[in-house]
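Page 42, continued from yesterday. The earlier attempt failed because a stray header line got pasted into the input along with the sequence. Redoing it now with the clean sequence only.
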Amino acid sequence: MFKGATNLNMDAKGRLAIPAKHREALLVQSAGEIVLTAHSHPCLLLYPASAWEPIQSKIMSLSSFDKKSAALQRRLVGYAEDISLDSAGRLLVSPVLRELAGLEKEVMLIGQGSHFELWSKEAWFRQSQEAINEDGEFEMPSELEGFSL
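This time it went through. Structure tokens are written below.
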């Protein structure tokens, strides 16, 4: 399970070093084979290839004649790239995906259980602040009404 937030620095070529604890898990789950794709938010999704396959199958089973389904297919599958960790445990983010998510030098790697999100540091903290209401609390979705920690 991938969890936690890590501040990473991307080099000029678009390479990111995956932290050792996550690198080992990615190697075990998918031999370092990763799928990187666009999200509907201004970030990227990073999945072990084995976890991405059922998601892609489900998305591609949707009708391409439906405008919403086709838009989702274009976004998630159209931007998907198969990448491998290099011998130093780095991944290369293509210029297209870097531009799409506004990634520059400082990047946040955010664990989401089965996958990660990659955010520009600025966008990550901006969306975090926007999620807080006037009372200084996160607004809970209706599905979690009554939930407490």
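Notes: The chain has a mean pLDDT of 94.
Reminder to self: strip header lines before submitting.
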